[in-house]
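Quiz preparation item.
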């Protein structure tokens, strides 16, 4: 199987490159840093690339993830998060390739008050969320058998993320004030990549949630990071209003993996177990 992986140099993309290698020949694609480069905002280039390689599977892991900057640069976010996924899905459909698109919990407003399932109504609160939701709609319109995987609160061996930021700021002795009234499920990219491969193998299509089990606030997440890393550090809990940012966040956006439960079985770990495993691996690799 020839697999075109777009966004291969992102935090999740790097883990997907490793995981997908178990089911096919992966061609990593990114804006830079790969032998095959692509500007996903260029729909003509997207179509030419996909038609040229004629893959069996296209995986889109690229996204404009600067959530707050998207508020002041909506056109850029729209090109990458909305237009590009639709163009990739359309090109994949034209060559008869399966298509996987990675989305986010930010398509929800988090007001329901329980873990969200795939059929819950979307209502994004930010430019980032709205562009990601539009990207989902464009993918569905362009490819009748696409797989859309929503995930959240990602961290892992690659890139910048909350876990690394907390440990770095603590090492620098910085005071930490973290929001305590936003809830979600911290999720490791290694687990998401493995789940996507299982979904592809099983031929699952449609919209699927893929996140660690359980939920916690950002403040609780920070405290768990230090506790599991064996670091004593004080973290002050503050309300969302105490940390003003341009983009609104959903208050409770933890995802329930209901479709995985009934198709391939939900083997995503509890968020605490995933975090402990990640920190153990990080500690081992640094010694």
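Solution:
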């Amino acid at each position: 199987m020839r697999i075109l992986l777009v966004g291969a140099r992102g935090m999740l993309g790097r883990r997907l490159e490793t995981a997908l290698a178990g089911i096919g020949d992966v061609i990593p694609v990114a804006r830079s840093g790969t032998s095959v480069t692509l500007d996903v905002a260029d729909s003509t280039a997207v179509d030419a690339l996909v038609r040229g390689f004629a893959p069996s599977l296209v995986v889109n892991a690229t996204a404009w993830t600067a959530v707050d900057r998207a508020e002041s640069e909506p056109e850029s976010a729209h090109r990458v998060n909305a237009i590009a996924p639709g163009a990739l899905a359309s090109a994949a459909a034209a060559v008869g390739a399966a298509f996987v698109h990675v989305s986010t919990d930010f398509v929800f407003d988090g007001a329901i008050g329980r873990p969200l399932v795939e059929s819950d109504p979307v209502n994004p609160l930010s430019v980032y969320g709205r562009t990601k939701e539009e990207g989902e709609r464009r993918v569905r319109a362009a490819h009748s058998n696409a797989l859309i995987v929503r995930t959240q609160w990602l961290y892992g061996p690659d890139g910048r993320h909350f876990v690394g930021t907390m440990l770095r700021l603590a090492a620098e002795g910085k005071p930490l004030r973290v929001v305590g009234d936003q809830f979600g499920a911290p999720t490791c990219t290694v687990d998401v990549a493995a789940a996507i491969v299982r979904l592809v193998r099983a031929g699952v299509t449609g919209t699927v949630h893929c996140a660690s089990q359980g939920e916690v606030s950002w403040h609780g997440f920070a405290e768990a990071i230090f506790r599991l890393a064996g670091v004593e550090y004080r973290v002050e809990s503050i309300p969302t209003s105490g940390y003003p940012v341009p983009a609104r966040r959903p208050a409770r956006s933890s995802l329930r993996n209901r479709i995985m439960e009934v198709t391939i079985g939900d083997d995503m770990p509890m968020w605490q177990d995933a975090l402990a495993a990640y920190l153990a691996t990080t500690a081992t690799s640094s010694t």
